[in-house]
Amino acid sequence: MSAAPTVTLSHGSAMPRLGLGTSPMNDDDAERAVATALELGYRLIDTAENYRNEVGVGRALKGAPREELFVTSKFNKRWHSVEGARTAFEASVEKLGLDYLDLLLIHWPNPDQDQYVDAWRGLLALREAGLVRAIGTSNFKPAHLQRLIDETGEVPEVNQIQLSPIWTKQENRAFHAEHGIVTEAWSPLGKGSDLLDRPDVVQIAKDHGKTPGQVVLRWEIQLNVVPIPKSANRERLAQNLEVFDFELTDEQIATLSALDGTGSAPADSDRSGH
Ligand code: A2P
């Protein structure tokens, strides 16, 4: 099996168009899943301070050719300052056993705390110092992104948001496209919903001889979204990477997009975050 194709971020990094999410896995589960994923051809591995599994992820990364990996981490709100971002970076790379990160994200904007612009200035300094190759945000709404742009003149390279056919996030994607921000999707399979059992999804999967999970991931790929499905199961890990050999029709894309809003409400980053 070959690695996923890549998309070029605004500062030049090549980011795989699909990766492995590791929440919620503990150190041991993450070590096993990441080791299997690397064997299968995954190159983008997504972790976070908050998942408490960076040590396990790091154990699995040992021995893999560093230049082939694309390792992402994220930090919590207590580090929302210039110095804090540096401290959070140092803690992550120490746990991961790395000396640089491919992508570091502000995990949640936490607008009540109102320090995410300082966190962003901290990320800019880390990128300037060559310690992180690319920088971005997670769970930022267009208004939060606009504020970063207005106050620093610098645009995040990636924004990772909760996105799947039941939450298509059209407005967010339009804003990202307008500003050259790559959209990454967490819970791309609609975890916690019945998305993969929906008759439309099942029928489209049958039409292509694929599984419902593969169809949903393919919908994201065709929308230029980078999905990071989590799986602890070897077969599903393999399946989730095999989404670059078929194409959904415009009608099938529209059918899947029409599921927007049919699940419970997604997380609201103006109200929650850590
Ligand atoms: P498992 O780890 O047993 O494979 P998300 O990434 O949207 O949060 O979804 C993750 C959940 O979906 C996990 O519970 C995972 O379980 C399951 N999952 C991952 N890949 C697939 C797939 N291809 N088909 C069905 N379920 C999947």
Can you describe what's shown?
Residues 1-11 have a biased composition (Polar residues). This is Aldo/keto reductase. Keywords: NADP, Oxidoreductase. It comes from Kribbella lupini. Belongs to the aldo/keto reductase family. Helix 7 packs across helix 8. The protein has 10 helices and 10 strands. It has a single domain (6-257), classed as TIM Barrel (Alpha-Beta Barrel). The strands form 2 sheets. The chain has an 8-stranded parallel β-sheet with strand order 3-4-5-6-7-8-9-10. It has a two-stranded antiparallel ribbon with strand order 1-2. Helix 1 links the parallel strand 3 and strand 4. The chain is globular and about 50 Å long. Helices cover 39% and strands 16% of the residues. The longest helix has 15 residues, at 82-96. It is of the alpha/beta class and 274 residues long. Residues 21, 187-191, 196, 211, 213, 229-233, 236, 239-240 line the site of adenosine-2'-5'-diphosphate.
Secondary-structure map:
Elements: E1 6-8, E2 14-16, E3 19-21, H1 27-40, E4 44-46, H2 54-61, E5 70-75, H3 82-96, E6 101-106, H4 116-128, E7 132-138, H5 142-152, E8 158-162, H6 170-179, E9 182-186, H7 199-208, H8 212-222, E10 225-227, H9 234-241, H10 250-257
